[in-house]
User: What shape does this take?
Amino acid sequence: MTDLSDREISWHYNSLNKYCCRLTKPRRAILDILSDTGRHLSADQIYKEASKISSGGGLSTIYRNLELLVRIGLVWKFEAGDNKARYEIAKRPDESHHHHLICKKCNSIIDYSDSIGNEKDFIREREKKLSSIYNFKIENHSIDFFGVCHTCSKNK
Assistant: This one.
């Protein structure tokens, strides 16, 4: 497993610090695991990976820290249609944004960002309009498309 780079540690540390939180061993383990993987992990999967690194707490510690990291914006949480929350590392504001294609048969999740450029103006205008209509400050959004992946389509 590769650890977070100095730049990533600094960004995560500053974000945690802004909310008067420390970069504890469980939080660091969660951030390392999510940074290192290309997958979207459940809390159980994160716990199993964290257990390999150290015995720094139980599943409840993972859940508690995940919820904190989601609340302060370091980790994104989303539902993948299998009744399990999935988590991924939040990108720094200067990094690319992406959305998900989620297979309803095998629960695979594909990140896509190749057409985000075309969507940015539309989404920005939509956020502005929704903010105005509902007097609501939008901080982030997520767009997930559910369907059947190519592999599952071939295996009918």
Q: What stands out?
A: The domain at 1-91 is CATH 1.10.10.10 (Arc Repressor Mutant, subunit A). The first helix runs from residue 6 to 18.
